[in-house]
Amino acid sequence: MSKITIKEVAKRANVSTATVSRVLNNNYPVSDEARKEVLKAASELNYKPNGVARSLKKNKTNLIGIIVADISNPFFMSVARGVESVVSEEYNLILSSTDESPDKEVKLLNMMLEKKVDGIVIASSNIDSSAIKSIIASGIKLVLIDRKVDDVTLDYIANDNFNGSFLLTESLIKKGHKDIAIVNGCLNVTTAIERFNGYRAAMNKYGLKIDKDFILQGNYSASIAFVETRNLIRKGKLPTALLSANNSMTEGIMKALKSEKVRIPEDISLVSFGEITNQEFIEPKITCIKQNPFLMGQKAGEVILDKLNGKSKEDNFKEVVLINEFCEGNSIKSLI
Prior knowledge:
Helix content is 42%, strand content 16%. By secondary structure, the protein is of the alpha/beta class. Among the domains are: 1-59, 434 Repressor (Amino-terminal Domain) (Orthogonal Bundle), CATH 1.10.260; 161-291, Rossmann fold (3-Layer(aba) Sandwich), CATH 3.40.50.
């Protein structure tokens, strides 16, 4: 198959070859509509700029963009610090938050293009890969953290979400729990899918049925998890245990339980994928999967630095899955 040329991209996008060059090299202002059409055409044709074309981008900005799902979550702030610890001698960072909004993520990616960043580290909140494909087509280096994106092959640094969730659920089952609810993130991100699958696999292994009323969507938000948990309690159908799929939601769940005078673990057991803030000062200590977000950030920083410095081949992608630590607290009541 012959290699796709810049002329073919221009024809598909119905623009001039000069406009295609300006968009892909990000070295001259063009209209938003033209940029969108060029990046779409380049993605559809799987166009890869050659070395000469890429060299037209004469000015490095020494900027790396970091796009996270929730800038207020200590997990993502620690990830950002990890990236910074590796790249700070050569690059400055632009840190942005999608607030779990796919639309906002697209706007932030376009902003990164306008800023002419050299690379992007992203925890995507978007099940649609078209925006990510546009970034790839532009030639900007990109590393995924925490979450995968469908239909793209990229460097990826993440936690072992399935096994972590499986272990948490199993820890409840081994203490005699059968009615176990999960407060999960939205299923448009892979972490939520993988953590739900781990929960379901553990329930299936021990022959336990999942009550559909016990599957709650907290959108990885403390405030939404608070409302979902409170609503569950007020329905009068309380599970014996709750699995929270991230640290922010755990805090929202705990506030809801306290507001409704439901005690941990006397009235309900609670486990968390992710350690809550100031856990050492809180009773009971929540049994959790302890993550290492700083290490995740360091690994992502190392990978993108290698890409930017030409130490890693463009088609050589790494997938790093970090092993989590199971930390037993005193938030599980034994029913045996």
